[in-house]
């Protein structure tokens, strides 16, 4: 099953190496869980994800970009295999 859910996506501080680095992270939004749907085909999931873009745009109105220091995250439709899960599954490390 392919799932589409609205996630809250932000950046997290990875560490001080090379002057500091950040990584993108996200988790399914509890507040927007009513929009979560499962599909049999990728085409259906892509179509539904496109339908969610205007909703996310409205939800993001007035929210700072994730690159800003005062970011609280942005809403974004994410397509995944199986149930929606936070990402990344493990905190990345600098190499």
Q: What do you see in this structure?
A:
The chain contains 1 helix and 4 strands. Strand 1 (2-15) and strand 2 (21-28) form a beta hairpin. The mean pLDDT is 95. Strands 1, 2, 3 and 4 form a 4-stranded antiparallel β-sheet that branches. The chain has one domain (2-81). It is α+β, with helices and mostly antiparallel strands and 95 residues long.
Helix and strand run: EEEHE
Helix content: 10-25%
Overall 3D form: globular
Structural class: alpha+beta
Rg, Cα atoms, Å: 15 Å
Indicate how many domains the architecture comprises. 1
State the main characteristics.
4 strands, 1 helix, 19% helix, alpha+beta, single chain, 95 residues
Summarize the structure.
Helix content is 19%, strand content 35%. It has one helix spanning 42-59; strands at 2-15, 21-28, 37-39, 74-81.
Which SSEs are present, and which pair or pack?
Layout: E1 2-15, E2 21-28, E3 37-39, H1 42-59, E4 74-81
Antiparallel strand pairs: 1-2, 1-3, 1-4
């Amino acid at each position: 099953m392919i799932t589409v859910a609205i996630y809250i996506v932000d950046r997290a501080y990875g560490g001080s190496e090379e002057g500091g680095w950040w990584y993108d992270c996200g988790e399914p939004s509890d507040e927007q869980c009513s929009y979560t749907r499962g599909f049999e085909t990728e085409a259906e999931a892509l179509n539904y994800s496109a339908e969610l873009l205007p909703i996310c745009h409205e939800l993001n109105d007035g929210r700072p970009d994730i690159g800003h220091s005062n970011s609280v995250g942005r809403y974004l439709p994410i397509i995944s295999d199986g149930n929606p899960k936070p990402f990344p599954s493990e905190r990345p490390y600098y190499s």
